[in-house]
């Protein structure tokens, strides 16, 4: 029991930070604690939340995906062109773009796996490629006037006092729940953790490492594509420069959510809370009105540092007693993951 | 794998020559250099001049990557040092301005180095912090505005020339010479190769791995700060939002093109600079050829992939497999 609680420590800490932050905001601005603010928080950060779920899988497996922001940008441009210029029905365009993204992610995963190259640099090339292709498609912002878009942005589950659970927010919540099920309850999820713990051991256990790696990057790109769909719903347009730098926001959310960047340990729910914390900072700044948006960057940087320092300290503490008493009991998964990277 | 001497950079120099030749084909006056008002002008000089900031960044980045690290914060450090230089330029003398801007880069480097060497945080995360927060700090310094200055002293560093050669080129060459002298002129280069190849074994062998790690990040911070000063001096102002944006990726790309292994332990300083020139020659070539500048990113992506595949330890195996598949060779 205590061990499983200790395992959940980082997520609990993140959630506590979010709740404390929300409390502080509510004390400063009495209007803050309303369903409306919470719902807007979800809607405004829906695309980031979806991407962060995919990033969680990638990072737990010990990789990284820098291409997601560009994939979102590409998706919005592709959708705008397909729907407005080429006359493709929106739903068919959604399916098409998800298939394209899946192929893109699978290619990156295959290059990482079969050529034994660092994920960081392969997805960097993917980032250039996706952004470059969307530049080639169009450099201007294209409005999307399809009926489905107007319909979807009107559609929402309404609560009293103007609070609306919009379609983007519903999609994000569904992705978060789906991600939790996939990561924690399926064999694929267990394989992802195993990969992040130790590639060699995973292969020796008979797990199909190439298949898992390719699937992980496919998943991340598909979710980035879905996020691009949500982003285009949210802005009703396609623009090749949209979502620049989102990959870093997503990585920051995942790290703040308690996932180890060295892999092997983390939770989808933590990333979700990490996204909410970043959204909270931005909402606070917009409530304040006099603070400039650059404080959001500094605050995110400080939070990143605080959580990474927190991780290092817990890892340090987790390793110590096991070493001293020489018990054969297995250390927490976090320590294993760290031990693999720095033995 | 073990330690290998850096391959003689025939591939890189060949690629650079090829790109320059291609530029010459699309623009016949590419190699024309003329002297005007005591300064050299021409497309080739332009490639060198525009490539100087990335070349400066790659001087720091190559050492960081050789230590199995990565420095994502160099773009943000450029923004910080540029912001400081531009805000102080009109009220202080040049030495004070330079000291403040370079000092900021030094502090940024120390921070990164501290996180990596002392706290043991993975480099990609440790430098991500400053990458995210650094641009915010730069905006704090400029108060969110684009700060402009008129000081001719600082402007000289971006737009002036020494004996006809534009100052950014001179600065980049001087830093290259200094880096080479310190790293290859002493045992430091060997120690970096050893620590990058196997940090634990090197530490056991008595190499101050932590101190060297700290030092390479400080050097990277300093180089980034200088690049930031040059960039600010070039446009007579500092734009915290856009100064050095995405240049960390160009710097990493330059180092990778230069044949430095991302797995640590093998690096070449000169070839990293050649890599930076290759990137800039491609940019200039695309502009000269009249292709839309948007093609730039796609071309870059293809080049990265090609270089990566060439570096891949598994390329030979897969090619052999392909040969078997096509019936060219017996299994």
Automatic annotation (TrEMBL), chain A:
<feature type="region of interest" description="Disordered">
    <location>
        <begin position="321"/>
        <end position="343"/>
    </location>
</feature>
<keyword id="KW-1003">Cell membrane</keyword>
<feature type="transmembrane region" description="Helical">
    <location>
        <begin position="294"/>
        <end position="318"/>
    </location>
</feature>
<keyword id="KW-0812">Transmembrane</keyword>
<feature type="transmembrane region" description="Helical">
    <location>
        <begin position="248"/>
        <end position="274"/>
    </location>
</feature>
<keyword id="KW-0472">Membrane</keyword>
<feature type="transmembrane region" description="Helical">
    <location>
        <begin position="91"/>
        <end position="112"/>
    </location>
</feature>
<feature type="transmembrane region" description="Helical">
    <location>
        <begin position="118"/>
        <end position="137"/>
    </location>
</feature>
<protein>
    <submittedName>
        <fullName>Simple sugar transport system permease protein</fullName>
    </submittedName>
</protein>
<keyword id="KW-0813">Transport</keyword>
<feature type="transmembrane region" description="Helical">
    <location>
        <begin position="165"/>
        <end position="185"/>
    </location>
</feature>
<feature type="transmembrane region" description="Helical">
    <location>
        <begin position="214"/>
        <end position="236"/>
    </location>
</feature>
<feature type="transmembrane region" description="Helical">
    <location>
        <begin position="46"/>
        <end position="79"/>
    </location>
</feature>
<dbReference type="InterPro" id="IPR001851">
    <property type="entry name" value="ABC_transp_permease"/>
</dbReference>
<dbReference type="Pfam" id="PF02653">
    <property type="entry name" value="BPD_transp_2"/>
</dbReference>
<keyword id="KW-1133">Transmembrane helix</keyword>
<keyword id="KW-0762">Sugar transport</keyword>
Automatic annotation (TrEMBL), chain B:
<keyword id="KW-0813">Transport</keyword>
<keyword id="KW-1003">Cell membrane</keyword>
<keyword id="KW-0472">Membrane</keyword>
<keyword id="KW-1133">Transmembrane helix</keyword>
<feature type="transmembrane region" description="Helical">
    <location>
        <begin position="6"/>
        <end position="26"/>
    </location>
</feature>
<feature type="transmembrane region" description="Helical">
    <location>
        <begin position="96"/>
        <end position="121"/>
    </location>
</feature>
<feature type="transmembrane region" description="Helical">
    <location>
        <begin position="297"/>
        <end position="328"/>
    </location>
</feature>
<dbReference type="InterPro" id="IPR001851">
    <property type="entry name" value="ABC_transp_permease"/>
</dbReference>
<feature type="transmembrane region" description="Helical">
    <location>
        <begin position="47"/>
        <end position="66"/>
    </location>
</feature>
<feature type="transmembrane region" description="Helical">
    <location>
        <begin position="169"/>
        <end position="190"/>
    </location>
</feature>
<keyword id="KW-0762">Sugar transport</keyword>
<feature type="transmembrane region" description="Helical">
    <location>
        <begin position="270"/>
        <end position="291"/>
    </location>
</feature>
<protein>
    <submittedName>
        <fullName>Simple sugar transport system permease protein</fullName>
    </submittedName>
</protein>
<keyword id="KW-0812">Transmembrane</keyword>
<feature type="transmembrane region" description="Helical">
    <location>
        <begin position="211"/>
        <end position="233"/>
    </location>
</feature>
<dbReference type="Pfam" id="PF02653">
    <property type="entry name" value="BPD_transp_2"/>
</dbReference>
<feature type="transmembrane region" description="Helical">
    <location>
        <begin position="245"/>
        <end position="263"/>
    </location>
</feature>
């Amino acid at each position: 029991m205590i061990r499983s609680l200790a395992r959940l420590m980082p997520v609990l800490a993140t959630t506590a930070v979010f709740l404390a932050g929300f409390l502080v905001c509510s004390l400063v601005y009495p209007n803050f604690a309303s369903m409306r603010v919470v719902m807007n928080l979800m809607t405004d950060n829906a695309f980031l939340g979806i991407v962060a779920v995919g990033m969680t899988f990638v990072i737990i497996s010990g990789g990284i995906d820098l291409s997601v922001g560009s994939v979102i940008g590409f998706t919005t441009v592709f959708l705008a062109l397909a729907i407005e210029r080429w006359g493709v029905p929106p739903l068919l365009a959604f399916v098409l773009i998800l298939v394209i993204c899946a192929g893109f992610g699978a290619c990156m995963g295959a290059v990482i796996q079969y050529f034994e190259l660092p994920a960081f640099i392969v997805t960097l090339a993917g980032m250039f490629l996706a952004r470059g292709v969307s530049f080639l498609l169009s450099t201007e912002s294209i409005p999307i006037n399809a009926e489905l878009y107007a319909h979807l942005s009107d559609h929402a589950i309404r609560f009293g006092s103007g609070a609306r659970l919009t379609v983007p927010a519903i999609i994000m919540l569904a992705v978060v729940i789906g991600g939790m099920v996939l990561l924690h309850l399926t064999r694929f999820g267990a394989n992802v953790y195993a990969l992040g713990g130790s590639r060699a051991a995973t292969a020796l256990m008979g797990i199909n490492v190439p298949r898992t790696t390719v699937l992980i990057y496919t998943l991340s790109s598909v979710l980035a594509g879905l996020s691009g769909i949500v982003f285009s719903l949210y802005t009703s347009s396609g623009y090749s420069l949209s979502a620049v730098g989102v990959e870093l926001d997503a990585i920051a959310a995942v790290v703040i959510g308690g996932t180890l960047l060295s892999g092997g340990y983390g939770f989808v729910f933590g990333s979700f809370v990490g996204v909410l914390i970043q959204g909270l900072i931005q909402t606070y700044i917009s409530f304040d009105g006099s603070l400039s948006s650059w404080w959001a960057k500094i605050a995110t940087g400080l939070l990143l540092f605080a959580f990474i320092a927190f991780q290092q300290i817990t890892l340090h503490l987790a390793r110590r007693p096991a070493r001293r008493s020489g018990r054969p009991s297995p250390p927490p998964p976090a320590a294993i993951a760290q031990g693999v990277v720095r033995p | 794998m073990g330690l290998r001497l850096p391959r003689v950079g025939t591939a890189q120099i060949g690629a650079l020559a090829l790109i320059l030749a291609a530029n010459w084909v699309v623009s016949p006056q590419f190699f024309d250099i003329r002297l005007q008002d005591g300064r050299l002008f021409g497309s080739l000089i332009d490639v060198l001049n525009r490539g100087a900031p990335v070349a400066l960044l790659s001087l720091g980045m190559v050492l960081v990557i050789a230590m199995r690290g990565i420095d994502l914060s160099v773009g943000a450090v450029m923004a910080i040092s540029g912001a400081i230089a531009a805000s102080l330029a009109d009220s202080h003398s040049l030495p004070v301005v330079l000291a403040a801007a370079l000092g900021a880069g030094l502090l940024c480097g120390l921070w990164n180095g501290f996180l990596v060497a002392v706290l043991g945080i993975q480099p990609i995360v440790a430098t991500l912090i400053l990458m995210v927060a650094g641009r915010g700090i730069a905006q704090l310094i400029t108060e969110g505005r684009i700060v402009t200055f008129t000081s001719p002293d600082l402007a000289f560093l971006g737009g002036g020339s020494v004996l006809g050669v534009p100052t950014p080129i001179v600065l980049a060459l001087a830093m290259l010479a200094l880096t080479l002298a310190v790293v290859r002129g002493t045992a430091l280069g060997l120690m970096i190769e050893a620590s990058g190849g196997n940090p634990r074994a090197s530490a056991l062998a008595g190499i101050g791995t932590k101190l060297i790690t700290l030092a390479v990040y400080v050097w990277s911070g300093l180089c980034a700060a200088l690049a930031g000063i040059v960039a600010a001096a070039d446009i007579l102002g500092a734009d915290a939002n856009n100064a050095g944006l995405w240049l960390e990726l160009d710097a990493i790309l330059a180092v990778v093109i230069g044949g430095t292994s991302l797995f640590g332990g093998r690096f070449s300083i000169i070839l990293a600079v050649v890599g930076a020139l290759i990137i800039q020659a491609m940019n200039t070539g695309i502009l000269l050829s009249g292709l839309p500048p948007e093609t730039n990113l796609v071309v870059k992506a293809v080049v990265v992939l090609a270089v990566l595949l060439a570096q891949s330890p598994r390329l030979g195996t897969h090619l052999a497999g392909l040969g078997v598949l096509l019936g060219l060779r017996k299994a």
